Amino acid sequence: MVVQQYKRRKFVANxxxxxxxxxxxxxxDVLHVVSYNHSYGRDVKAGLVWYNRTTRTVNASGYLLKxxxxxxxxxxxxxxxxxxxxxxxxITINLCREANVDRFGVAKTIQDSVNFQLKCPVKxxxxxxxxxxxxxxKFPPHLHAGKYRAQIKVYDGPNFLAEFYIDSEITEKIKKWxxxxxxx
Length: 184
Fold this sequence. Notes:
It holds the Pfam family DUF1091. The protein contains 2 helices and 8 strands.
């Protein structure tokens, strides 16, 4: 009997390692700007438009009056018993750091549809997103199906910038498995 010795490997977390999933699809239903700080922005508009018959994209625009670096807080709700209820996920994110790391591929897919560089500090001027889409295949796998609301508040240090929410629906992909024919 031969006994093999295995070397113990040290696990190092790689921030550049990305997810891939094909378990679910995400349908974004609503994008609504609740409020924004008028000393930082002017004429801020955002919404979803139909790009073609099946795809909704983000169009947003506004004038940024000051240069900024941003932090973001995210609170999620799940649609249960005919209302959105908090599901316990609250995250505070430094957007400047996340734009460099790009864990979920959002910065890479949105960069083509914006008229400014996704790096900090964001310079003042007219900013717009035209037909912005997100590649949801780079999101984490095994998210539960259902309707969700993400309430997002954006800050520049201690100063409030904007609050908006996104309603979306996660549906599981049904995979069709072809069985081999037994009787030929």
